[in-house]
Amino acid sequence: MNPERVRLALRLAALTTLLLLVAQYLLGLWTSAYAPGQFTATPSYPPLVAHYGIGYALGVASLVVLILAALSGSRRLQAPAVGLIIGVALAAVFGLEFVRSAPNNPIDSFAMGLMFLVAFGAAMNLSFSLMRSGTTPAPSSPSRA
User: Fold this and answer.
1) pLDDT tens column, 21-38
2) What is the DSSP string of 58-75?
C-alpha cells in the first residue's frame, strides 16, 4: 500500500475520531444535565441513544486508526493509536457499568470521563504527530535549460 495514501487516510481517520470524541463529550454533558432521573441500560432518552451510537462509531473509528497506524510502520503514530483504542474501549466499559448499576455509581462516571481524557489526549497526540511529519515532496526533476 502506498505510504502517502496510508498517511492521508490516517489523517482523515484521526480528524474524524477527534470530531466524534468532541460530539460524544458534548452529548455526555447534555445527557448528564438533562436526563430524567437515573440512567438505565435500556435507553429511552434520545440524547442517550445518540451517545450510544457515537460510542459505537468511536469504537470503529479507533480500530480504523489503529490499523492505519500499524500500516504506516511508524511507532510514533502507533503508540497514540494504541492509547486511543484503549481509552475508547475502557470509557465504553465504564459507561456500560454506569448505566447498569442501580443507583448509578459515580466512580464509573468518573472513570468514564478519565478514559475520555486518555482517548482525547491520544487523538490529539496522533494529530500533532501527523501534522509535524507532513508529507515529503516528490523530488523534482532537473530542468533542462
Assistant:
1) 999 999 988 888 877 666
2) HHHHHHHHHHHHHHHT-H
pLDDT score for 84: 97
Residue at 143 is within a domain:
no
Residue 98 placed within a domain: yes
**What is the total count of domains within the chain?**
1
**Which of the residues in the chain have pLDDT under 50?**
135-141, 145
What is each CA distance from 56 to 38, 74, 93, 106, in whole angstroms? 22, 27, 12, 22
Instruction: Confirm if 21 and 61 have CB atoms less than 8 A apart.
Output: no
Output the CA torsion sign for 1, 131, 15, 83. positive
The parent domain of residue 107 ranges over 3-35+44-133
Determine the number of helices (DSSP H) and then strands (DSSP E) in the chain. Answer: 4, 0
The pLDDT of residue 140: 45
Spatial separation of the C-alpha atoms in residues 56 and 110, rounded to whole Å? 20
Closest CA to 47 of 71, 68, 30: 30
Count CB neighbours of 45 within 10 A.
Answer: 16
